[in-house]
TrEMBL record:
The lineage of its organism: Bacteria, Bacillati, Bacillota, Clostridia, Eubacteriales. Residues 116-207 form the WhiA LAGLIDADG-like domain. It comes from the Bacteria. PANTHER family: CELL DIVISION PROTEIN WHIA-RELATED. Gene3D superfamilies: Homing endonucleases. One of its GO terms (molecular function) is DNA binding. Involved in cell division and chromosome segregation. Residues 210-293 form the Sporulation regulator WhiA C-terminal domain. The keyword Ligase does not apply. Belongs to the WhiA family. GO terms for biological process: cell division; regulation of sporulation. This is Probable cell division protein WhiA. InterPro entries: Homing_endonucl, Sporulation_regulator_WhiA, Sporulation_regulator_WhiA_C, WhiA_LAGLIDADG_dom.
Length: 302
């Protein structure tokens, strides 16, 4: 099951308790469904849970039933064709038989709960959301451009801040930020799905943090290995030239320990002294050995 299907399944568990909210949800469905005109209402869906909710929603909102119900094969198709039913819907939502209500009638959405129900209906009919483990994208698509513009204004008024675009003649309102998607899903009645988006983001952030730490540790290890190799080569060069035996006792001791333990980190090598010395002191001695070897190598050219 896709994440969109899971979200719609959760939304369809929201009770149809208040008639005003049922009408608002049904309004969202109509403006984002396949056909909404004075001659026909047609809703086509692949969601089993939405198909089960639709007849209850229409009856609760308008007190009548669909003229056509799914035949049990393929996609679920619902339709209303009775002129009296269509006229009743248009009048209730602010339109008439000649001019269908293809604008958002804000008078139907005065209450906060009704606005949330309206968005829920719009998502059920024309919405989709990407699996948050793959990316962040939620959109609502309608063929009515005026509805798309007004939906954008409504969402911004609700503090949701979506973006808008046109695609193949349709109006698309969308979100690409995980926190905005979480806010929308929570407001329309899908808090569990919102939590899943949040958890996916946390997992991605944690994985990214671990990867950065691993990469940083690997880079530091590479640097430490490279430094140790340089130190060993410098010490051997000084030894071959007979200069190592002429150096102060502390530098000779450091050279001997580094040759004996080339794989040790500075901290490990510093603990091998008796008594142990600080990492800073050890680093200073090793750097001195490298500088002496380098100066000796360059002396013939001077």
């Amino acid at each position: 099951m896709s994440f969109s299907s899971e979200v719609k399944q959760e939304l369809c568990r929201v009770p149809l308790s208040r008639k005003c909210c049922a009408q608002a949800e049904c309004y969202g469905v109509l403006l984002y469904c396949n056909t909404f005109s004075p001659r026909e209402i047609r809703v086509i869906t692949e969601s089993d849970s939405f198909a089960q909710r639709l007849p209850q929603l229409l009856r609760r909102a308008f007190r009548f039933s669909f003229d056509r119900l799914p035949d049990g094969e393929g996609k679920h198709i619902f339709a209303v064709e009775d002129p009296r039913k269509l006229s009743a819907v248009q009048q209730l939502l602010g339109g008439d038989d000649r001019a269908p209500a293809l604008h958002i009638n804000f008078g139907v959405l005065e209450e906060k709960c009704c606005r949330a129900a309206f968005l829920r209906g719009a998502f059920l009919a024309g919405g989709s959301v990407t699996d948050p483990r793959k990316g962040y994208h939620l959109e609502l698509t309608t063929s009515h451009l005026s509805v798309g513009r007004e939906m954008l204004a409504l969402m911004r008024e609700m503090g949701l801040e979506p973006k808008a675009a046109q695609r193949k003649g349709n109006s698309v309102v969308y979100f690409k930020q995980s926190d905005r998607i979480e806010d929308l899903l929570t407001s329309i009645g899908a808090p569990l799905s919102a939590m899943e988006v949040m958890n996916a983001k946390l997992e991605k952030d944690l994985r990214g943090s671990v990867n950065r730490r691993v990469n940083c540790d690997a880079a530091n290890l590479d640097k430490a290995v490279e430094a140790a190799m340089t130190q060993v080569e410098s010490i051997r060069r000084l030894e071959e030239q007979g200069r190592l035996a002429l150096l102060p006792e502390k530098l000779q001791e450091t050279a001997s320990l580094r040759l004996a333990h080339p794989e040790d980190t500075l901290s490990q090598l510093a603990q091998r002294y008796d008594p142990p010395i600080t990492k800073s002191a050890l680093n200073h001695r090793l750097r001195k050995l490298v500088e002496l070897a380098k100066a000796e190598a360059e002396s013939p050219r001077r």
